[in-house]
Each structure stands twice: as structure tokens, then as C-alpha cells.
Specification:
Methane Monooxygenase Hydroxylase, Chain G, domain 1, 423 residues, five-stranded parallel sheet, Rossmann fold, single chain, alpha/beta, Helicase, Ruva Protein, domain 3
């Protein structure tokens, strides 16, 4: 079994790292031909996405000795330990040295790019470059690292590792559910629900589901186990809140209509994008949530951004159309919509260059124009959402009533209701 088989998904990055691994295994042969091969990789990205696992798989697949250098707590002589690790790797070369969480090596201000720790790392890399030491580093963020670290001959390959896409989430779910999956679990549906979560979070959700399955005496994880674990994992909600939702605690029907508004507009503008909708006492407030699957090209597509604005404002529309009053539940939606709309006009200059913000200090007049354009974009989105809801009142009523009755609906429930309304 190839060590990289331990990593589910990430096929493009795995392919490149595998190729470099094969080069390093044949490093001596290339050196005899006076051909230099890459001797350094840096992976960066958010915590929990599997960077250290990549490094360990690389080291084990190479079949050479490997060393893991990580700053553990407050180490007074960490610089000396860095040098010591490089010396050990040189003595047992060919060898792999993993510098884990490289951006945490420096003490004090993490914006200090000239920290002594980084100077020592650079010096050691240069010293060991032709001695058979392959350096594999990981970092959460590269902004605190000196540009000189990325000079050719140090880290020849730098890869960003992002949260897994839906296809990768499906493979990760299949990997962790192997031997534990009940017949009623639709991995595709849960991959849409959990898209955007990193590997560590997905593993934790499945582990929580397995704990619940064991506690109820089950041999396999069933759909209900996954639902509860997913709600807790996505919304960081206490167990009692999830239990309240599933056990029939009563909620203000206005919450149901608010969430139904989000569902209706989302399904009309982006079909099959709603993955879960629920009522719930979340963060101490009587409210609910609507989870959606976002396409990977979201921020590259103006049409998707404008649709998102409509969906964000749809809860407010639904309450005002149904009850004829203002919606007290929409504060967080308005804030989110405002942030999206402001980026739309100030970062992407969607409404002209008067409201474009280049990153430099803007004048009070420009800020006023930006706010006016932001509010204008939101007004257009609101009217579009209101029209959609007004033309699909039966769909709205059906979702709200089912939500009041069941408290939590999955994608399959939403699609069933939508088909029943001729959608």
C-alpha cells in the first residue's frame, strides 16, 4: 500500500508530491548525472486540513530516516534544537526533515520576518542542500515568513492546501465511514452538507456520530447519528440544543417562515443548494438556520454573488410578506448581506470606480458613495427576493408547515416538498 493512500481526496496535490517523492528516492542517481532535484516543499493552509499528514506520508513513502521538528511550548534554546535536527538529518542522509508549523518557530511578534529562528532555518537549509536532506515544511500562514525563505534552492515547491471540495469531502467521508456506515446514509448528501469543513472537523463529526451509535447500542452509524453530529459540528451547538430540535420543542412559527423564505429563494435561484434547514435554540436565541452548498467558484461569479444577496435577504422578505411587520430575526442576515454587497461594490467595482476601494485610505465622500451603492445593491436583491416569494407562496407555506411539524428538514425533504408544489 502506498503511504499516500492514507490521504483521501486532494488528488492534484498528491500527484505532484508523489512525483517529487519519486525524484528524491532516486536523488543519488540524478546527482551522478549532475542534475539537481527539488529538495524542499512548503505546504500552507488553515489548521486541520492535513498538512502534517502529507509531510509524514512523504517521509514514510521515501523510505529514508525522517525527523519531525516542531516548537513545543516555550523552548529557551529552540534555535539550538533547529541546528541539532539538521545535523541529525545530515548524519543519516538521505533523510527527510519535517519543519512542522514553521510560522510558529519565531518568538514574540509573529509579524517579525527577520526573526533569528528563520535566519537559522535558511542557513541550515543552504548548508544541507547538497547533503541529501529533504526539507518538508508546513505552515498555517506564509505572511509571517521572510520572502528569502522562498528563494530558489530552499523551498522549490510551495503549495496551498485548501478546505476540501465536495468531491474530496465525499472521499473523506467514505474513508472514515468505512465499516461503520449504515444503509440509510447518503454520502453524497452529507458531502454537500459538510463541504467547506476541513479533514479534522469531518473526522470529529464522524467520531461523534460513532459515539452516539455506540451509546444507543448500534453496530453502525445511521442517518440520525450523522444528522445530530453534523448539526453540532457545523454550528458548535450543545447536545441539548440538538436534542430539543429532534424531540419536538415548540418554536415561534415566525422562525419557520423566516427560514422557509431562505429555502424558497435558494431553491428557485440555485436548485438543490439547500442541504439542511432547522429550527433551534441556537446561541440562546429562538431562531433557526438554513445550510446551503456553495459552488467552488462563488467569489469568481457576479451572478452567484447577486443570488446569494437575494437568499440572505429572503428571510426578511418572508416575514414581511406573511405578517406585514418588520422581521426582528434578520439582524445577522442584514449584516452578512451588507458585507457581501460592500465587497461587491468596493472590491470588485461592480457599480463603477467611484466606490472602488484600492486599499488606501478613502475619503468621506468615497465612503458615502460606497454606502449608497451598497444599500442600492441590497435594495435590488431584496425586491428580487420578494417577487420570488410572492410568486411561490404555496412553496413557502409548505416548507414552513413541514418545518413547524418536523423541526428539521434535509435536502431530500426540501426536494420532495418542492416537487409536490410543481417545482
Amino acid at each position: 500500500m502506498n503511504e499516500f493512500d492514507r490521504i483521501a481526496g486532494y488528488e492534484s496535490i498528491k500527484r505532484e508530491i508523489k512525483e517529487i517523492c519519486e525524484l528524491f528516492k532516486a536523488e543519488r542517481m540524478y546527482r551522478q548525472k549532475r542534475i539537481k532535484i527539488p529538495m524542499g516543499i512548503l505546504l500552507y493552509g488553515a489548521p486541520g486540513i492535513g498538512k502534517t499528514l502529507f509531510a509524514e506520508c512523504f517521509a514514510k513513502e521515501c523510505g529514508y530516516p525522517f525527523f519531525l521538528c516542531r516548537k513545543d511550548g516555550d523552548q529557551n534554546d529552540f534555535i539550538g534544537r533547529i541546528v541539532e535536527f539538521f545535523d541529525k538529518a545530515e548524519k543519516q542522509a538521505p533523510a527527510v526533515l519535517i519543519l512542522d508549523d514553521l510560522d510558529k518557530f519565531a518568538t514574540g511578534d509573529d509579524r517579525e520576518k527577520n526573526a533569528e529562528e528563520y535566519v537559522v532555518v535558511q542557513t541550515c537549509i543552504d548548508k544541507s542542500r547538497d547533503k541529501g536532506v529533504f526539507v518538508f515544511a508546513t505552515a498555517n500562514d506564509t505572511h509571517s515568513l521572510p520572502d528569502s525563505l522562498f528563494r530558489a534552492g530552499r523551498f522549490d515547491h510551495v503549495f496551498e492546501v485548501r478546505a476540501p471540495e465536495r468531491e474530496d469531502v465525499e472521499k473523506i467521508l467514505a474513508h472514515y465511514l468505512n465499516g461503520k456506515k449504515g444503509a440509510d446514509i447518503d454520502i453524497f448528501a452529507f458531502s454537500k452538507l459538510l463541504c467547506g469543513k476541513n479533514c479534522a472537523e469531518i473526522e470529529q463529526i464522524i467520531n461523534d456520530a460513532a459515539i452516539r451509535a455506540f451509546q444507543r447500542g448500534g453496530e453502525e452509524i445511521n442517518k440520525e447519528d450523522m444528522i445530530r453530529a453534523s448539526v453540532r459540528g457545523i454550528y458548535r451547538s450543545p447536545k441539548t440544543i440538538v436534542d430539543d430540535v429532534r424531540e419536538g420543542t415548540s418554536y415561534d412559527e415566525r422562525v419557520a417562515y423566516h427560514e422557509a423564505g431562505h429555502v424558497v429563494v435558494a431553491e428557485l435561484l440555485e436548485p438543490s443548494s439547500v442541504t439542511m434547514v432547522s429550527l433551534g435554540n441556537y446561541e440562546g436565541l429562538i431562531r433557526g438556520f438554513t445550510a446551503r452548498y456553495y459552488q467552488s467558484e462563488y467569489w469568481k461569479n457576479a451572478d452567484l454573488i447577486e443570488k446569494d444577496l437575494c437568499i440572505l435577504l429572503a428571510g426578511k422578505c418572508a416575514i414581511e410578506l406573511t405578517y406585514g411587520t418588520a422581521d426582528p430575526l434578520c439582524e445577522s442576515d442584514l449584516q452578512a448581506a451588507s458585507d457581501v454587497a460592500r465587497s461587491f461594490v468596493s472590491v470588485f467595482a461592480a457599480k463603477g470606480f467611484q466606490s472602488y476601494n484600492s486599499g488606501y485610505a478613502s475619503s468621506s465622500i468615497q465612503r458615502m458613495i460606497t454606502e449608497r451603492e451598497t444599500n442600492g445593491v441590497m435594495e435590488v436583491a431584496y425586491e428580487r427576493a420578494k417577487k420570488i416569494i410572492a410568486e411561490n407562496r404555496n412553496f413557502l407555506e409548505a416548507i414552513a408547515k413541514q418545518l413547524i411539524d418536523k423541526k428539521l428538514l434535509l435536502e431530500e425533504d426540501v426536494q420532495r416538498i418542492k416537487i409536490g408544489q410543481g417545482g
